Amino acid sequence: MGILSCFAPLLGQASSAASVYSDSTLVGSVQPVKGEKGDGAGLNVVHHAVSPRDASNRLNATKAKLEALRQELDKEGLQAYIVPTADAHQSEWVAPCDQRRHWLSGFTGSAGTAVVTPTAAHLFVDTRYWVQAGKEIDGDLWTLEKLGQKDVKNWNEWILTLDKGSKIGIDASLLDYQTGRKLSEQTGEHGLELVFPQDNVVDRIWHDRPERTHEPINIHPLNLHSGGSECSKPAADKVADLRTWLGENYPSDARTHSHYLLSSLNPIAWFLNLRGGDIAFDPVFYAYVLVSLDAITVWIQSESLDDKVIKAIKEFGGEIRDYAKAMDEIPNAVGEHDVLVTDGTVSWAVVDRVGQDKVKIVKSPVETAQAIKNEVEIEGFRRAYLRDGAAWARWQAWLEERVLSGKEITEWDAAEELTKYREPMENFASLAYENISATGENAGESDPDPSPARPIPLSTSTPYLNDSGANYLDGTIDTTRTMHFGKPTAEQKRAFTRVLQGHIAVDRAVFPEGSTGDQLDTLARAALWSDGMNYGHGTGHGVGEYLSVHESQVGIGHNLAYFNTPYVPGHITSNEPGFYEEGSFGIRLESVLVVKEVKTRRQYGDRPWYGFERLTMVPIQTRMIDWTLMTQTEKEWIEDHNRTCERKLLPLVKGDRRAEKWLKRQ
C-alpha cells in the first residue's frame, strides 16, 4: 500500500514536516470501533463517509472553531499556531482523541499540517490530497497549500516568512525531536520565537474531544503454527540484547548510568511481544519503555492489562507504572550525570524535560532488529499471504462475474466485499489500513478514498485499482492489483505494461551485500522513464509482523533510513511502482518481498549476493499487457507467477468453482 517510505527524507518517522517528494500513498483516517478476533483483540475498521449535509454542517462549524482558537492565540500572545497530524508517539495513524487537525479543518486525510494565524488559516497537503482537501475544507476560511506546486513552501518553511518577533506555538509532545531541533534553530535564525504552551491549545476549545482508548492488550503468540517456542525472540531475550547493545555503546560506571527509551508504539509492541488495539489498523497500545542495565520500566494504561499480561511483563523484570505519569517520571529516572539514549522519533517534549545535553539520538537498535524477520516469522508471512491470496481469488472471481453480468458494483461495494472474504480467514484480526478502491479518474489520484456517499460504479471501459490488506496474527498483508473488465485502450495497456516491467525488474533483482533500497528504486522506474512517465511516491516500504503495514527501516525509495540500512536476509519490503493519469486512470501493482541469499555464477567480491522471494500470491491480470513491449524473460516471469499462484491457491479454494475457474484463466 501506499508507500510509506512515508517517513520524510531528513526528518523523523512520520515527521510532521512531510516531504514534498512524498514516499507514501497513505490512506484516509477513520473512526475505529472495538472488535476482537480470536486471540488478537484489535480494531475493526468502519469506513468513513461524509454526506453532503454533514459536510455543510462541518464547514459551518469550522468558522466557529477558528474563531475560538484565535481567541486562545491572543491569550497566549501567539502570532501562529501549528496543528500537525500526530500524537505523542509520532504514530502513522492517530486515534480519534489526537485527530486535532481533522477536527479543526474538516480535512479527513491521514497527513497534513494546519497553521492558524490571527487573520488566516493554511492547510499544507502533498499531491495525494490536493483534490480531497479542496473538497473538504471551506475555501473562504482556509488557504490550501498544495505541496509540489512551484513556489509553494511546506509549513516549516512557510512560518519562517512571518514577521520578525512573531511567536509561533506548537504542542511539544506532537513534534518529533529531529523536526523540533531544526525548527528551533531556523526560527531563531529568522528572529522568530518557537513557543511551547503548557497544554495543547486546540484541546482547550475541543469540548467533546474523545477520551484516550485503552483496549485490552494480548500476548503475541511465539509460534502460531508448530506450538513451539522458537519465535521472534521471547521478550526477555530482546531485553537482554538491548542491554548488551547499551553496555557496549554507552557503558555505565559508578557515576554515570545509561538508559534506552522506546517511545514509538510499534517497536514497543514488538519488543514486549504484546499487541493491543488503541489505534485503528495498528495493533499497538499506549506505552513508554525505559531500559537500563539493571531495570526496565513500562509506563502503560492499567485498564488495558489483565493478569496474564501483567505476569508476562514481570517475567522479564518489568516494573509497571501509570502511563499518565510518564512525562513526569521519565525525566526523574534519568540522573544528573546519566545518559538517555533514544531515536529521532522521540518527542521534543521528552528531550526538553530530560535536557538536551543528556540525550543521545541514535538509529534505533530495536527497530533494526525488528526489521530482520527470522525464519519462523517469515514462515508466518508465507502462510498469511497464501490464505489472503485465496480470499483475493474468491473475491476477484466474484467481482468479475458481477461486473460482466451487468450488475452495478461501486468502489465501495467492491472494497466491502473483499473485507467479507478476508474476515473468515484463519488468524484474521483486522484490516491493515483503509481499503483503497478506485476506478477511472479516482484511481488517477494515488490515494483515493471510496465512500457510499459517492457511489462510483465499476465499468468495463476503465481500469479498477484495489490496494488493501489485513492484519493476521502471523503476518500483515499489503497487496495492490489493477484490473480491467473490458477492452483497455492502447494507452492504458502501455502504462500498465511499463508499471509491470518495473515491478518485474525489482522482483528479479540480484544485488551484492551492502546494497540499499535507494539503489534499487531506479529499476522500478526505468521502463516508465523510457516513455517519460513516473510516479510521485516511493517504490517500497517495510512491513510489520502483525504490526504496522509500514515499517521505516527498510524499503525502496529516496529515504534517509534506506540509505543507512543495507539489505540483509529477513528484510521485508513492498514492491509497488505505479502511474497516475490525473482525471483519467491509475495503475499500481504491489507485491511483498523478503530478502534472501542467492548464488550467482561468479560470486564476485567474495561476499554474499542477495535477491528476493515473493510472498504475495495474487495473480496479475494479463488483459492489460501490451505483449509487444515485453521481453521474453518478462513474459516467462508473468507466466510463472500466475501458474505458481494457481498451483498454490487451488487447494485453498477447492469447491469454489468460480474461483477455481478464475485461477485457471489467469
TrEMBL record:
Chain residue ranges for the region called Disordered: 439-461
A Gene Ontology term for the protein's cellular component: cytoplasm
Keyword line: Hydrolase, Manganese, Metal-binding
Span of domain Peptidase M24 C-terminal: 608-666
Record-level Gene Ontology MF annotations: metal ion binding; metalloaminopeptidase activity
Domain Peptidase M24: 380-597
Full protein name: Xaa-Pro aminopeptidase
Species: Rhodotorula taiwanensis
